[in-house]
Amino acid sequence: MADELENFITLASPVIDGKAKDLQALSLKIWEKPELGYEEHFAHGILCDFFEEQGFEVTRGYTMPTAYRAVFGAENEGPTVAVLSEYDALPGVGHGCGHNLIAIAGVGAALGIKAAIEGGLNAKLIAMGTPAEEGGGGKVQMVSSGCFKDVDFSIMVHPAPFNMAFYVSQALEKAEIVYKGKAAHAAAFPWEGRNALDAAVMAYNSISLLRQQMKPTWRVHGIISEGGVKPNIIPEQTKLEFWVRTVKNKECAVLKSKVNACFEAAAKATDCTVEITWDPIPHAGVLTNSKLAYLYQKYAGQMGVVFPSREEQESIVDGSTDFGNVSMVVPGLHAQFCIDSSVPFHSHVFRAAAGTQYAHDQTIIAAKSLCFTAIEVLHDPSLLKEMKDEFLQAVKDA
Predict the structure, then answer these.
(1) Which residues in the chain belong to E strands, given as ranges?
(2) pTM: predicted TM-score of the whole model, two decimal places
(3) What is the mean pLDDT of the chain?
């Protein structure tokens, strides 16, 4: 069995290496033409074209205009892996999160898995293009649309300032808060007004005081997006936007209730009304499957990648990603690979790093690590079962 696994990996590895220049060309085209979430028509088109050229059965506009599904081995009865790509950019900083690299890492891993299937691996491969990770919740909607119902596990990688297999992200919920009061002349008749800005400021300050009782991994951040019209008019309406994050999904509801109390108390204290609207597309925290993480770390380590200890990795709490919702319905891996240890996410310097030769070389290593991880799980029924058993328990504990 070990010899057969090694044979599949031997088939996959040179295929990815052999396509490295083509993959880099794809990446740089996407990098040079950044598109915001749900507007990634160029990236969607060239990625679908490439998959069709490589012999995949491609569905363009899969459940949404800029998503795709590229399938190979559909006739096989073995387990199914979904390899995910992202390709949306950020306003102002373009590919300041390196999604051009995520795009080709998914493609590269898929090409390697395809080679193993052609060599006899009994498995089905789905390469999935997922739009609008940056705030749009594309994967959340794809989960709701049933895109992962025929998938046994899902994997992807993300460029970063560090290497990480045991990824920790935060559950995320977003709210818009609208206070309504009564306008009045702020100098002549202020007592006739009800100050909606007072309500907004009181809510903001109450949440600031709440932080003393928040757990270290809880996060609340917000802005006053509308604060009034002119200083001599008592503000009749104000708006706030707040984001609430926790590592444990179940704790998000607890923190939401505390934050809601601050919003409601401010309305009562200022004699204003309040409307609190929570985004219907919450992001779950990522449930990293340890079986997948250890395999990824093993294969990347064989290619020279150095990782901190698992404990150190899990102490780094990242932001939020819609992959969390995927990891709640199938076992998942969202590994990270270093392209430059000095560059922070969502910055111009990260964008520059995502276009370098070094970043593309590291992406090929990440794609191969992802590919080999998938091949080993697809090849070993007992490992597949262990992965699924861990997943079921993790969902209960989330």
Answers:
(1) 57-60, 68-72, 80-85, 124-129, 153-160, 171-180, 219-226, 237-246, 273-278, 332-338
(2) 0.92
(3) 97
